[in-house]
Design a protein that fits this description.
- The chain is built from 11 helices and 8 strands.
- Helix 3 (about 55-65) runs parallel beside helix 4 (about 80-85) and helix 6 runs parallel beside helix 7.
- The mean pLDDT is about 95.
- The chain has a single domain (about 1-230), classed as TIM Barrel (Alpha-Beta Barrel).
- It is globular.
- The longest helix has 17 residues, at about 135-150.
- By secondary structure, it is α/β, with parallel strands linked by helices.
- Helix 4 links the parallel strand 3 and strand 4.
């Protein structure tokens, strides 16, 4: 599983302040940390960046590349001008994060990807917002990828993001996204995939977020997910993604296959992954106390 580090983000007080004040120290420190933590890509998230994004994004890219020039970057902002200004200064092939499945967005942004030979995240957010199920996701995917293909972008440069939603308020969507993920190879052969993994745990208490993120990553991996945007400080998630905890993967897969192991024969750690898998699958109702039951 490829990991895209999410913590070079404007919502961080430290990083947001550094962006605003053009203080390269915290930005470069974070970039080096992410590389050392094993991130395969570094996401630079400016948020809307409405005021000065066209100046800020290329500056941040250059500051990161001063200290980390061998990890590709993901340009993450809704400001199209900021993306356009940063693409020419990227040393390695970047990923544009993201292009929505809405004509007013993809008609402007796909040509940027063509011009700079960039990859892009195809976000399944359509004219009506979040798709209701995997079939609506599929319809949006076909529309957006067809447009990109016609413009000359092959599927191999497109990272499909079906959109992760919080399990505590939209539990069925977790299943829908997995079903959609399984449709991608037949629907658009060669297309890659990613997602904002931590959205699955957006809302539950902080101490429950890591196991939700880790479990859902493994579940998505079983359906073919290639990468996730993740917290580089979650060392357990990184270990699982890099194949260092096959025992956790095995127990999650067993539950998904309908062969849940005997809880009495498992450690408390593995029992928690079994319980969490069942919650995400909808076999157990979500509550903040699911690990205690």
């Amino acid at each position: 599983m490829l990991l895209i580090g999410e913590s070079l983000n404007v919502i961080s007080k430290k990083i947001g302040k550094a962006f605003k004040e053009r203080d390269k120290g915290p930005i470069q420190e974070e970039a080096v940390f992410q590389k050392e933590a094993g991130m395969d890509y570094i996401d630079i998230n400016l948020g809307p960046a409405k005021k000065d994004g066209h100046e800020l994004m290329p500056w941040v890219v250059e500051m990161v590349q001063e200290v980390v020039d061998d990890v590709p970057l993901v340009l993450d902002t809704s400001n199209i001008d900021a993306i356009a200004a940063a693409l020419p200064v990227c040393k390695l092939t970047p990923i544009i994060n993201s292009i929505m499945a809405r004509p007013e967005r993809y008609e402007k942004m796909v040509p940027l990807a063509v011009e700079h030979n960039a990859d892009f995240v195809a976000l399944m957010w359509g004219p009506d917002g979040l798709p209701r199920d995997e079939n609506e996701r599929a319809a949006l995917c076909v529309e957006l990828l067809y447009f990109a293909n016609e413009a000359g972008i092959p599927n191999e440069k497109i990272w499909v993001d079906g959109i992760v939603t919080p399990v505590n308020i939209q539990q069925p969507q977790a299943i829908s996204l997995m079903n959609f993920q399984g449709m991608i190879p037949d629907m658009c052969p060669g297309a890659r995939s990613t997602c904002g993994l931590s959205n699955i745990s957006n809302g539950p208490p902080d101490h429950l977020r890591p196991i939700l993120n880790q479990t859902y990553m493994v579940m998505l991996q079983k359906y073919g997910m290639e990468s996730v945007i993740s917290d580089p400080r979650d060392t357990m998630l990184t270990d699982i993604a890099k194949g260092k905890r096959q025992d956790i993967v095995d127990v999650i897969y067993a539950v998904m296959d309908g062969n849940a192991p005997d809880m009495g024969g498992l450690t408390k750690e593995l029992q928690d992954y079994v319980k969490t898998t069942k919650v995400i699958l909808g076999e157990s109702l979500y509550s903040d106390s699911w690990l205690e039951i």
